[in-house]
Design brief:
It is a single chain. By secondary structure, this protein is α/β, with parallel strands linked by helices. The protein is about 35% helix and about 15% strand. The strands form 2 sheets. An 8-stranded parallel β-sheet has the order 7-6-5-4-3-2-1-8. Helix 2 (about 40-50) links the parallel strand 2 and strand 3 (about 55-60). Helix 3 (about 70-85) packs parallel to helix 4. The relative contact order is 0.16.
């Protein structure tokens, strides 16, 4: 069975580019180019479902950029977003909540998982079964900001309904030697201690790095990888007021974040040469 490729996107254009290039699953966000992504709009989800009705979609639940320690007001927003999205044919949710001390906030994470499940809507169950992805709840890279990897794993393994952890192996990229060692340990834990939790490596994955990552992690149970394949492109505005803008600043002030189909296709071709 081939490895699964998940691509994070934040626009209809990027979603189409990713799917046409071979993405098996989408993680849908807003603001990918600034701060790693936040909760998308319901309108964006609906627009993507119209043009890519079969591909499974995971919804990022993150009310803002910055850290993962949320106020009660922010947490209420996360709950409400889950309630609305779960009625609109999504495959699952992606979120992460930490304590100020750098541990997993187990109580709040369990509450989010309980709110997310069971999912509702007219899902393509045969496709989801093939992808091993029915009713999925993923703890995102907030995991990489925890102070102790093994403790964070054990905390998450206590949460009923959690099915995936997205992680770079607590490094800047998932492909560094140290990160690969952490990922091997996590995959081994998932294989031998809690088979319901999938480990999804992400960060720094491209056509130059994915081969070595697969070779290192497949013996430990790797089954899927996550990437963005995104880059800044110049916006369409011809007239631009000097010294002003509404973007992220610098060279990308007037830019737009887009998925590069060639980057996705190259990784898809590479991972298709491996078998789970």
């Amino acid at each position: 069975m081939p490895l699964i490729l998940e691509v994070c996107v934040d626009s209809t254009e990027s979603a189409l580019a990713a799917v046409e290039a071979g993405a098996d699953r989408l993680e849908l966000c807003s603001n990918l180019g600034l701060g790693g992504g936040t909760t998308p709009s319901l309108g964006l989800l609906k627009a993507i479902q119209k043009v890519a009705p079969i591909v499974p979609i995971m919804i990022m639940i993150r009310p803002r950029t910055g850290d993962f320690v949320y106020t009660e007001a922010e947490f209420d927003v996360m709950i409400e977003d889950i309630r609305y999205f779960k009625e609109n044919d999504v495959q699952g949710f992606v979120f992460g909540v930490l304590t100020p001390e750098g541990d997993v906030d187990v109580a709040r994470t369990q509450r989010l998982v309980s709110e997310a499940l069971p999912l509702q809507g007219d899902v393509n169950c045969l496709l989801f079964f093939f992808l091993r992805l029915i009713d999925v709840v993923c703890f995102h890279r907030a995991f990489d900001m925890t102070r102790d990897t093994k403790n964070a794993w054990h905390q998450l393994s206590q949460i009923d309904g959690l099915t995936r952890i997205l992680t770079s192996g607590q490094g800047t990229t998932a492909t560094s030697a140290n990160s690969l060692d952490v990922l091997k340990d996590l995959l081994d834990l998932a294989k031998h201690q809690d088979t319901r939790i999938e480990i999804l490596p992400g960060s720094g994955i491209n056509s130059s790095t994915v081969g070595a990552l697969c070779q290192a992690l497949l013996p430990h149970g790797l089954r899927e990888v996550h990437m963005s394949g995104g880059h800044w492109t110049d916006g369409a505005s011809v007239w631009r007021r000097d010294g002003m803008g509404m973007g992220v600043g610098g060279a990308s002030e007037w830019g737009i974040w887009r998925t590069n189909a060639s980057a996705i296709r190259a990784v898809k071709d590479a991972i298709d040469s491996f078998q789970v």
